[in-house]
Structure formats: structure tokens, C-alpha cells
From TrEMBL:
Residues 122-155 form a coiled coil. This is Uncharacterized protein. The keyword Transmembrane applies. The chain crosses the membrane at residues 111-127. Keywords: Coiled coil, Membrane, Transmembrane, Transmembrane helix.
Length: 159
């Protein structure tokens, strides 16, 4: 068990060293990019690489802890192993539910957008109908006025 703990510690140290080397390389790339005028892109690159380093360390540390736990079970740890497996299943279920909620939210947003477009089209159609009605009324009024003028001219010519 002590040998496995040493192996785990060595693996963790190696992972940490690799992540630190990746960060140093990213910092060197960022400083080079900053010197050539690409400072905003370099800062973003550095931030992304630092986040990747943290994710890498967190994932591999948890992975190594689980390996140690499952490779060296004692009588009391068998129950703990089942609890850890249950926790992992619960985490997976929670992630699945979050993905489903995000998908549902996206679908709701798409539906609301389509509804908004439909309402906008209805408003435009209503405005067009009102304009057509106004034009028809104006044409009818003009025709009535022309007819009245013609009648007045005919009556004036008869007298």
C-alpha cells in the first residue's frame, strides 16, 4: 500500500509538473504575442490555458484518489465504495438533468423568438390592411366628388 501511495504521489507530482510546464509555455507564448501587438488575444489564451491547467489538475487528482480507493478496499471501505459509486451516478444524473434543462430552455427561447416573429408579421399585415382600406375610402370619396362635379356641370349646362 505504501508503494501504491508513492506511485500516486509521483503521478500527481508529474501531472502538476506537466501542467506547470504548460502554463509556463502559455505565458511565454502570451508574452511573445503581447510583444508583437496581440496582447488581448494573448491574455485570453493565457486565461484559457490556466483554466485548462486547473481542470487538468482537478480531474487527475480526483482520478488518482478514486484509483487508490478502489484498488485498496478494506472491509469498511466496501460500503464506502458503494457510496462513491452512488455519488458518481447521482452526479451523472444531475449533469443529464442540467443538459435537459438547457435544451428545454433553448427550445423555449426558439419558440418565443418564432412567436415574436409571427406577432410582428401579424402587426405588419394589419397595418397593410388598414392602409388599403384608407386608400379605398379615399378613392371612393374622390369618385363621389367627381360625380357630384359632373352632375353640377350638367345641371349648370341645362339651365
Amino acid at each position: 500500500m505504501a508503494g501504491e501511495a508513492d506511485q500516486t504521489a509521483a503521478a500527481t507530482a508529474a501531472a502538476t509538473a506537466a501542467a506547470a510546464a504548460a502554463t509556463a509555455a502559455a505565458a511565454a507564448a502570451a508574452s511573445t504575442a503581447a510583444a508583437t501587438g496581440g496582447d488581448m488575444g494573448a491574455a485570453g489564451l493565457l486565461l484559457v490555458l490556466q483554466q485548462q491547467q486547473q481542470d487538468f489538475l482537478l480531474f487527475h487528482t480526483a482520478d488518482l484518489m478514486l484509483l487508490l480507493f478502489f484498488e485498496n478496499p478494506t472491509e469498511g471501505e466496501e460500503e464506502g465504495e458503494q457510496q462513491v459509486l452512488l455519488l458518481l451516478l447521482l452526479l451523472q444524473e444531475q449533469q443529464h438533468q442540467q443538459q435537459q434543462q438547457q435544451l428545454l430552455l433553448q427550445q423555449q427561447q426558439e419558440f418565443l423568438f418564432l412567436l415574436l416573429v409571427l406577432l410582428l408579421l401579424l402587426v405588419l399585415l394589419k397595418q397593410q390592411q388598414q392602409q388599403q382600406q384608407q386608400q379605398q375610402q379615399q378613392q371612393q370619396q374622390q369618385q363621389q366628388q367627381q360625380q357630384q362635379q359632373q352632375q353640377q356641370q350638367q345641371q349648370g349646362g341645362l339651365i
